[in-house]
Amino acid sequence: MYRGIVMALYTYRAIRDTGGIEIGSIEAADKRELAAALQRQGLFLIKAKEVRRPGRLFTREVRRKEAVHFFASLGALLRGGVPVGSALRTIEEAASASGYRAFVRRVRESVEAGHSLADSIDRCGGNTLRALVGPLRTAERTGRLPEILTVLSEQLEQDRKIRAQLRKASIYPTVIVLALCGLVTIAVRVMLPKVMGSIRELMAGRPLPPFTAKVMVIADWLRDASSYLPLMALLFVAVLVAAKLWPRARRIADRVKLVLPVAGRFITFRETINFLRVMQMGVGAGLGAARTVEMAMDALNNEVFRRRGRRATAAVRSGGRISDAVRLVFRDPYVYAMVLTGETSGELEDSIGTLLRHYEDRASEEVERTFAVLGPAVVILLGMVVLLVLCGTLVPLWESMQYIGRLR
User: Fold this and answer.
1) Residue 209 — pLDDT band, cuts 50, 70, 90?
2) Domain residues of the chain, as ranges?
3) Is the sign of the CA dihedral 177, 182, 185, 191 positive or negative?
4) What distances in angstroms separate CA 239 from CA 19, 77, 233, 250, one per listed residue?
5) Which of 123, 157, 354, 382 has a 20 to 30 Å separation from 64 between CA atoms?
6) CA–CA gap between residue 130 and residue 115 (Å, rounded)
7) In CATH, what number does 64-159 get?
């Protein structure tokens, strides 16, 4: 049912089964699926319109640090009895960064226009906050908005710390790799051509020594290949733009990311943690299995996992259990066994909490282990490149001088 379907964003106007009008936005494959999704929530569709989402390639999105402040501040104000509109106005007045203040202002204006907080954040928050819209909608319906806002701020703070750890650990290898690229470029474009030109003059048409001949072939090939570097850089940027703007290109890019040795593990850890966090919220709020899995699926960012999540949601709606959905999404026997045990024992929320702590610890350990190995490996690689550059310049000169001496 969901295989290969690209979800679109719709704004809708619907009637509640208890009376009254609700206006909001939701993702669905088409209007028929939209009407079915709303009906499961006790809403009857009146009117719907597809929203064409602009590409966010050059637009400023909310930073994670700002999102942490936003949710923590809003949760604290709502717990103190401050209305949502007034709380948003207070946060807007206290915001120092212009981009953050503009985001809070757009959310406040949307709320004051009659939209829910979740729909307003969905409209204004960009990709950074998209995964949190489902828990916010559930929190608004169950009356647990202040509590969920605090949990979401803690989730974002944890994600921010892991990302900061990754950035900090990757600075040294990145500097070394850039130094390697600069060294190789200088050697290929400046040093080797001069050395090889001098050797050709010394040899005066005589055959080159074997090692020198091989170095010259490699140098000529590298020099010719380096002329294509600007084109390769442009192609790389074009791929990034395509992955940002076109769903099919993004699916391909996300599939490639999962295959990469280190990045694939980090992405899997991140998706598992996000999925389990939101699922724990849904179970704690007393939601049904289908709604819990649907909400957790919205927390996934990688398109490969999102497609699995749609199939898992359909399976749960057909009578499956949460553990069946988890097995379809992650295909991890440990996660499946823990969730199944929680369902059987009636301690599902505690089991998910145990899983969540386990994967958070594993993610931190993986970051430390990876960069502990990567640092020395990059240093060794730098030494090898320096050695090759020296051999490629000094050995041919020495070999050529000896060869000419023997001829004389």
Assistant:
1) low
2) 8-51, 64-159, 173-408
3) negative
4) 49, 43, 10, 9
5) 354
6) 16
7) 1.20.81.30
